[in-house]
Amino acid sequence: MNIALIAHDKKKDDMMRFATAYKGSLSGHNLFATGTTGQRIMDETGLQVHRFQSGPLGGDQEIGAMIANNKMDMVLFFRDPLTAQPHEPDVTALLRLCDVYAVPLATNMGTAEMLIKGLDRGDLAWRSVANGEKGE
Ligand SMILES: O=C(CO)COP(=O)(O)O
Fold first, then answer.
1. Is the CB of 91 within 6 Å of ligand 1?
2. Greater model confidence, 124 or 23
3. Beta pairing class for 105-106 and 30-33
4. CA 134 to ligand 1 center in whole angstroms
5. pLDDT of residue 135
6. Span 33-37, mean pLDDT?
């Protein structure tokens, strides 16, 4: 599966804790991230991550483009609901595309844990079937 990991600045520590806790699950998948989030995940967990631009510089849109091309299976986006973001339109557009394409989306750590546990259980196997792939 292709999984996107994104965290706003004040949620990056949470994302690092999450990625560390679920490193075993995440390591079996292709990981993508916005620039700064991806760099920190690689530095702090050793996981391999494909990094896009930083969020404010277009990274959210690059991940959105993968969704539009049916190349993203799950988005874990730890949003900061208490801080205004200069690229709020990009954030909204990314969330909207998840809904357009029915891509499982978590916007906080609680939901992200449920999705990862579901992933481990094979709950997302339907996506690889729908995409004509063999999974992972
Ligand atoms: O701003 C972001 C998502 O909207 C995250 O971008 P960075 O991972 O580059 O900080």
1. yes
2. 23
3. unpaired
4. 31
5. 47
6. 98
Tell me: pLDDT of 90 over 70: yes
Among this protein's residues, is 90 annotated catalytic? no
Cβ of 54 less than 6 Å from ligand 1: yes
Q: Which numeric CATH code is attached to 2-76+87-128?
A: 3.40.50.1380
Domain ranges of the chain: 2-76+87-128
Given 60, 80, 99, 123, the catalytic residue = 60
**How far, in Å, CA of 23 to CA of 40, rounded?**
14
Residue 105 has pLDDT above 90, yes or no: yes
Q: Which residue lies with its CA nearest to atom 2 of ligand 1? A: 55
Contacts of 16 by beta carbon, 8 Å cutoff, 6+ apart: 40, 41, 44, 45
Closest-lying ligand 1 atom to the alpha carbon of residue 34: 8
Answer whether 0.80 is exceeded by the pTM: yes
Q: State the average pLDDT over residues 24-46.
A: 98
Q: 56 in ligand 1 pocket by Cβ < 6 Å? A: yes
